[in-house]
Specification:
The complex is a heterodimer. Chain A is of the alpha+beta class. Chain A has 3 domains: 270 residues, Class I glutamine amidotransferase (GATase) domain (Rossmann fold, 3-Layer(aba) Sandwich), CATH 3.40.50; 111 residues, Sandwich (Immunoglobulin-like), CATH 2.60.40; 29 residues. In chain A, 20% of the residues lie in helices and 32% in strands. Chain A has 9 helices and 28 strands. In chain A, the strands form 8 sheets. In chain A, strands 2-1-5-6-16-15-13-10 form an 8-stranded mixed sheet, with helices on both faces. In chain A, strands 19, 21, 22, 25 and 26 form a 5-stranded antiparallel sheet that branches. In chain A, strands 20-28-27-23-24 form a 5-stranded mixed sheet, with no helix packed on it. In chain A, a hairpin with a 4-residue loop joins β21 and β22. The relative contact order of chain A is 0.10. By secondary structure, chain B is mostly helical. Among the domains of chain B are: 156 residues, no CATH class; 186 residues, Rossmann fold (3-Layer(aba) Sandwich). Helices cover 65% and strands 5% of the residues of chain B. Chain B has a 5-stranded mixed sheet with strand order 6-5-7-11-10, with helices on both faces. In chain B, β8 and β9 form a beta hairpin. In chain B, α7 runs antiparallel to α9. The radius of gyration of chain B is 31 Å and the shape is globular. Classes of the chains: A alpha+beta, B mainly alpha. Chains A and B meet through α4, α5, β27 and β28 of A and α36 of B. Chain B: Component of the oligosaccharyltransferase (OST) complex. Chain B: Pfam families: STT3, STT3-PglB_core. Chain B: InterPro entries: Oligo_trans_STT3 (IPR003674), STT3-PglB_core (IPR048999), STT3_N (IPR048307). Chain B: Keywords: Endoplasmic reticulum, Glycoprotein, Glycosyltransferase, Magnesium, Manganese, Membrane, Metal-binding, Transferase, Transmembrane, Transmembrane helix.
């Protein structure tokens, strides 16, 4: 399979991949990335971002979005592990690509960076909607913030927003804190609060709103305040990751390099936070960070090593599971104190936090509840930024066998006594009655 | 009969008796062959398969038993049914049938006859129906002599009601339970007639076998006390009655408590209380008789007042205790099935799950004619015959038929208990009638020869030989053990009274001799009646009751059509799904799915958990999304529905659907039956309510149905369906059998992504390329 995909890659790519791994469980980091641009000049204007990716070992395949030879897959095999769409104005994608095939691409567990911009096309909005992100319907609207704009915004319409409301997650944005505000110029989008798969990474300040800067506001803007998301991520149920940004400039060399001073703030930064923000985010989206892998669930009775086919009620058992985290190069033991196991039959009968030996092994022991039925060991681990772990293993629990009950119950000794004295009494009585004259 | 005849072979009449007994043995063998072979139509017309629903479970249990042995069977926790609750099979099943078939299989195999478990299971019922007819012979012989016994046995061998439950392949509890029932009654009567403690013990053992086999054992434990009470009230108390009853209750209850499924119910539920009450009463009565025998009449009067007053107090206390016990138990001590026996409307009012089973419905009048045919006319004659003269045994048979008529009127399933009683009564009636007619013919043809008449009297008149026999016996035994005179004592007392009565009867008979022509015509008519019965029975066995219901056939102009959809789809399930996948269906198909497809089911025909069944019923009556959530929470992978609309198979899920709604609504109040009915009518055409048209059952049944004929014409409901073109959002059709009888759907996996605001997007995008179809997700 690897050879086929490699030869296919040879045919279709003009950059020869040195070592092309398909996205796999063993090596979750993406390798081959297709970049769709609506203008090849973006290649140079966003060169820092692209070069950074290349230096991290990605094979970038730049194509025009309208290129008629575009194809994501051939003979049922995906040619790419990741997709970057920097083509906000494209109305139609070339080749066989459309929004459905991009949604399929995500549903196959592959990753996507999508950037819209002012006057984003319906196509881009459609892809975003597929991922649960709703851009402002007014196509000419931009995010305007009269209190936290960047002072370098010379136009005076305060559309260059200096945002510093970042999600607090080391997994998504790296351990180093992003000090400088992130410069953003583009459209706002909102998320459905009931959608637990999407997450605001960069939110607007409470004073922001979304409107057309060149026209007067006739009615209150629909999107206001921190309901506006500037950059969002989506992690699908199959752990495919998507970054959706409302601004293409966010990734540009110009904003990477420009200094920033937030209006009303004395702090002036030499460099905006954009580069760090985008780099860390791209590490997350391409699974260089926050990707967990769990080994199989192991359970057995205390004092035994083999996994039984069935437990008895009130058995003592030991349970363990191995969890590793992908560091970008290798699997490292995952260390956390909040992994829990459920012993589940329609509802969790046992819920225990697993303790770890810091080598990736999480274990605990507990007593099977006094209920028989078909149980499941369930590990449902959903932590912000990490891939979702959802493991379950079915195990039946049986009641006592007929000979596993206590033979003689202490409280019943009077009854045993009564029984035997009656028998003895009857015998004596019969004897006396029959042979006594 | 054999015993007395062998005693004195010398006399010519005894020789005739010996000949008669050889003949009756031969006839009994033939009756056994008849009972066995009339039940083989199903094997000849179809094939040697297990029938229907419950037999599949019994078959599966038997397989387990034969593979793992009795201890594993006793402790079997089955994790493939009632997911995720599981079921403790060993403790919730009546093991009699399974153990019987398992033993037969083991014996046959240790004799190096390589029969498969399935073959043994298929033929268990016919074999036991032969046993049952022999038991009927024994029982009726105890009541009215061997002539009636043979007639009753022959009738029972082919009574359609019994055939319906015991054709080859119908491997259900009733197959062995009817034999056990009749045999227990026989042993009771035998004990009553002989007063032998040996038979009393055997009686308790037979009762134990009955308890092992069928929940219908409560009929015995209530009928026998009732008879005892009747005997006491009518002044027929005798030590024989005591011996027949007291050991039976004590031993029987102890043995019944040994059966895991009964356990403490044998002393805790009110179905059994009648026997304990009568047990007390019979002791009080026995005490009274004892005291009466020891005291002078004057003293006795004093004692009576004393005993009566004490007895009243004791009775009052006991009744109070019983009432308290009954009142403290949640269902007032009665299980739902038993309550519906007492109040026929109880089940339909309160327990939809009991009412939903067709065999728990009251029967219709035609079903009596169908199931017992001419016996219905003979039964009254038999009852009359039982009253002349009334003995302990015949009073028992009368009580038996009265009770079983009532119960069969409540629940069609209990027709099965009624059938043996009807056969016994009809056998008595037939034999008496033949006696009268042949007797008069003989007399008219110059039968002045008295010896002939006497001999004839001896063989065919019912009481005479028995009396002769017991007298002979009595004379012999009397001297050895005067004290142990139970039956003998009674016989001795009665002898002077009865002998003359028989003499007078013979004299009366001679006086009541019918004219020759009338006798011959009546005989011919009786024979014709019998012939009609035989023809009807053979027809019923061949046509009405042989269908295995997993294979259906239909005859039309083109010839025979076979619908083997059930096995086709179970085979599909077993070959195309993972071994741990859960299949949800209405509970009727649970046993078959576990037995034939070997897949885990959510509910099955053992309807012990109402909530769980109601959950499935609710899912079936909910709209797709809610149903998907319910099924997903139960880890269901596949949903199986049975649909008869294409070929006109009437017992499909749409016809059962209202029960799902009722049972679901009984537990979850948001399901209301009225939402599924248009003006109180259940319909699926364009007039149907939106709730009905959107529920899962409708959608799964009629999905793509319009593609078959373009109109969507349902041949069962004889109408076009209401909603024809629709898509499924949460289920994928994965299998539809050849005649669309079984349709299997797979639950779609949860969506990989949650989409944004769909409506606004739709109004904006013209491309429309975003369909709602679920994308393939290789990770789930």
């Amino acid at each position: 399979m690897m050879n086929i995909s490699r030869s296919l890659a040879l045919i279709s790519l003009f950059i020869l991949p040195l070592l092309s791994f398909s996205f796999s469980v063993d090596n979750p980091t993406d390798r081959r990335v297709l970049v769709l641009l609506d203008d090849l000049s973006l290649k140079s204007s966003h060169s820092i971002f692209f070069n950074n990716l290349k230096s991290r070992g990605f094979d970038l395949d730049f194509k025009l979005a309208e290129d008629s030879k575009l194809a994501l897959q051939r003979y049922g095999q995906y040619l790419y592990d990741g997709l970057i769409i920097f083509a906000p104005s494209t109305e139609r994608l070339g080749g066989s690509l459309d929004s459905k095939s991009i949604a399929d691409f995500v549903d196959s567990g592959r990753d996507l960076i999508l950037s819209a911009d002012t006057s984003a096309s319906d196509l881009i909005r459609g892809i975003a909607t597929e991922c649960g992100v709703d851009f402002d319907e007014d196509s000419s609207a931009m995010v305007i913030d009269h209190s936290s704009f960047s002072v370098s915004d010379v136009d005076g319409d305060h559309t260059l927003v200096a945002a510093d409301d970042l999600v607090k997650s080391d997994v998504i944005l790296g351990k180093t804190k992003i000090e400088a505000p992130v410069l953003f110029r583009g459209v706002a989008h909102s998320l459905n609060p009931n959608n637990n798969l999407v997450l605001k990474v960069l939110s607007a300040s409470p004073s922001a709103y979304s409107a057309n800067p060149s026209s007067k506001l006739s009615s209150p803007p629909q999107l206001t305040g921190s309901a506006i998301s500037l950059v969002s991520v989506m992690q699908a149920r199959n752990n495919a990751r998507v970054v959706i940004s409302g601004s293409l400039q966010l990734f540009s060399d110009r904003l990477f390099r420009s200094g920033v001073q937030k209006a009303g703030s004395p702090n002036k930064y030499e460099k905006s936070g954009n580069q760090q923000f985008v780099t860390e985010l791209s590490k997350w989206v391409f699974h260089e960070r926050g990707h967990l892998k769990a080994g199989s669930l192991v359970h057995h009775r205390v004092g035994e090593t083999d996994e039984p086919a069935i437990y008895r009620i009130k058995d003592d058992l030991e349970f363990s599971v191995e969890i590793f985290e992908w560091s970008g190069k290798s699997w490292e033991p995952y260390v956390a104190d909040d992994v829990q196991v459920q012993f589940y039959m329609m509802s969790p009968y046992v819920l225990k936090t697993l303790s770890t030996d810091k080598k990736g092994l999480f274990h605990t022991s507990f007593k099977v509840p006094d209920v028989y039925g078909v149980f499941q060991f369930k590990v449902e681990y959903e932590k912000l930024g990490y891939t979702t772990l959802s493991l379950s293993k079915q195990i039946p629990v049986r009641p006592y066998r007929h000979n596993e009950y206590e033979r003689f119950i202490p409280t019943a000794y009077p009854y045993y006594g009564a029984c035997f004295t009656t028998m003895a009494g009857f015998f004596v009585f019969s004897f006396v009655y029959l042979y006594h004259k | 009969m054999a015993a007395p005849e062998s005693q004195n072979l010398a006399t010519p009449s005894a020789l005739r008796n010996a000949f008669g007994s050889v003949l009756s043995v031969l006839i009994l063998v033939l009756i056994g062959v008849l009972a066995f072979s009339i039940r083989l139509f199903s094997v000849i017309k179809y094939e040697s398969v297990i029938h229907e629903f419950d037999p599949y479970f019994n078959y599966r249990v038997t397989q387990f038993l034969s593979k793992n042995g009795i201890y594993e069977f006793w402790n079997w926790f089955d994790d493939r049914t009632w997911y995720p609750l599981g079921r403790v099979i060993g403790g919730t099943v009546y093991p009699g049938l399974t153990l019987t078939a398992g033993t037969i299989w083991w014996v046959v195999n240790s004799l190096n006859i390589p029969l498969s478990v399935e073959t043994v299971c298929v033929f268990t019922a016919p074999v036991f129906s032969a046993f049952a007819s022999w038991a009927t012979y024994l029982l009726t012989k105890e009541v009215k002599g061997s002539g009636a016994g043979l007639a009753a046995a022959a009738l029972l061998a082919m009574v359609p009601s019994y055939i319906s439950r015991s054709v080859a392949g119908s491997y259900d509890n009733e197959a062995v339970a009817i034999f056990a029932l009749i045999f227990t009654f026989y042993l009771y009567i035998k004990t009553l007639n002989t007063g032998s403690l040996f038979y009393a013990t055997l009686n308790a053992l037979a009762y134990f076998y009955m308890v092992c086999s069928w929940g219908g054992y409560t009929f015995i434990i209530n009928l026998i006390p009732m008879h005892v009470l009747m005997c006491i009230v009518t002044g027929r108390y005798s030590p024989r009655l005591y011996i027949a009853y007291a050991p039976f209750v004590v031993l029987g209850t102890l043995l019944a408590a040994l059966v895991p499924v009964v356990g403490f119910n044998a002393v805790l539920t009110s179905e059994h209380f009648a026997s304990f009450l009568v047990f007390i009463i019979i002791h009080v009565v026995a005490l009274v008789y004892y005291i009466k025998g020891n005291l002078s009449p004057k003293m006795f009067k004093v004692a009576v007042t004393l005993v009566v007053s004490i007895g009243l107090v004791v009775c009052f206390i006991v009744v109070a205790v019983l009432v308290a016990l009954v009142a403290s138990s949640p269902t007032k001590g009665w299980s739902g099935r038993s309550l519906s026996l007492l109040d026929p409307t109880y089940a339909s009012k309160y327990i939809p799950i009991i009412a939903s089973v067709s065999e728990h419905q009251p029967p219709t009048w035609p079903s009596y004619f169908m199931d017992i045919n001419v016996l219905a006319f003979l039964v009254p004659a038999g009852i009359v015959a039982c009253f002349s003269p009334l003995s302990d045994a015949s009073s028992f048979v009368i009580l038996y038929i009265v009770m079983s008529v009532y119960f069969s009127g409540v629940m069609v399933r209990l027709m099965l208990v009624f059938a043996p009683a009807a056969c016994i009564m009809s056998g008595i009636a037939l034999s008496q009638a033949f006696d009268v007619f042949t007797g008069s013919i003989k007399y008219q043809l110059g039968g002045s020869s008295k010896s002939k008449d006497d001999a004839e009297d001896n063989t065919s008149t019912n009481n005479a030989p028995k009396d002769d026999a017991s007298t002979g016996k009595t004379d012999k035994v009397e001297e050895i053990a005067k004290e142990r005179s139970s039956k003998k004592g009674k016989k001795k007392e009665r002898e002077p009274a009865e002998k003359p009565s028989i003499r007078s009867k013979i004299a009366k008979k001679k006086a009541l001799v019918l004219p020759l022509e009338a006798s011959i015509v009546a005989l011919l008519l009786l024979i014709m009646l019998g012939a009609f019965y035989v023809i009807h029975c053979v027809w019923a066995a061949a046509e009405a009751y042989s269908a295995p219901s997993i294979v259906l056939t239909s005859q039309n102009r083109d010839g025979l059509h076979v619908f083997d959809d059930f096995r086709e789809s179970y085979a599909w399930l077993s070959h195309n799904t993972d071994v741990d996948d859960k299949v949800a269906s209405w509970w009727d198909y649970g046993y078959q799915t576990t037995a034939m497809a070997n897949r885990t089911v959510i509910v099955d025909n053992n309807t012990w958990n109402n909530t769980h069944i109601a959950t499935v019923g609710t899912a079936m009556s909910s709209p797709e999304k809610a149903a998907w959530e319910i099924f997903n929470s139960l880890d269901v992978k596949y949903v199986l529905v049975v649909f008869g609309g294409l070929i006109g198979y009437p017992s499909d899920d749409i016809n059962k659907f209202l029960w799902m709604v009722r049972i679901g609504g009984g537990e979850f109040s948001h399901i209301k039956e009225a939402d599924y009915l248009r003006d109180g009518q259940y319909r699926i055409d364009s007039e149907a309510t939106p709730t009905m048209l959107n529920c899962l059952m409708y959608k799964l049944s009629y999905y793509r149905f319009v593609e078959t004929d373009g109109k969507g014409y349902d041949r069962v409901r004889r109408t076009e369906i209401g909603k024809k073109n629709f898509k499924l959002t949460h289920f994928d059709e994965v299998f539809t059998s050849h005649h669309w009888m079984v349709r299997i759907y797979k639950l779609k996996p949860q969506k990989n992504r949650i989409r944004g605001r769909v409506k606004k997007l739709k109004s904006k995008t013209s491309s429309g390329s975003f369909t709602k179809t679920e994308k393939k997700n290789p990770w789930i």
